[in-house]
Amino acid sequence: MKIVINGAEREFPDGTLTVAALLETLELGPQPVLVERNGLAVLSREFDQEPVENGDTIEIVRMVAGG
């Protein structure tokens, strides 16, 4: 399956993939992140159920605090 993550096309094995699984694969869990799938925000409580499908465009922004 091919998806675009933050502007870069990436390939993943075909099968069922959720936002939560994608974040784990990218070694971004459990960091606080904002995720957008195909232009729509995904709530963090929906990460486990939100599917990632072939051709999706995903934007991931890490939240950091500082001053």
Overview of the molecule:
- The structure is a single chain.
- The protein is mainly β and 67 residues long.
- It has one domain (2-62): Beta-grasp domain (Ubiquitin-like (UB roll)).
- It has one helix and seven strands.
- It has one helix spanning 19-25, and strands at 2-5, 8-11, 17-18, 33-37, 40-42, 51-52, 57-62.
- Strands 2-1-7-4-5 form a five-stranded mixed β-sheet, with no helix packed on it. It has a two-stranded antiparallel ribbon with strand order 3-6.
- A hairpin with a 2-residue loop joins strand 1 (2-5) and strand 2 (8-11).
- The radius of gyration is 12 Å and the shape is globular.
- The model has no long low-confidence stretch (mean pLDDT 93).
Compact summary:
By secondary structure, the chain is mostly beta strands. Helix content is 10%, strand content 39%.
* Largest sheet features: 5 strands, mixed
Which shape, going by the Cα principal axes? globular
Low-confidence stretches: none
Tell me the CATH architecture. Answer: Roll
Output the CATH topology: Ubiquitin-like (UB roll)
**Assembly of the depicted chains:** single chain
Describe the strand arrangement of the main beta sheet, using strand numbers: 2-1-7-4-5
Task: Throw out a few tags for this protein.
67 residues, mainly beta, Ubiquitin-like (UB roll), 7 strands
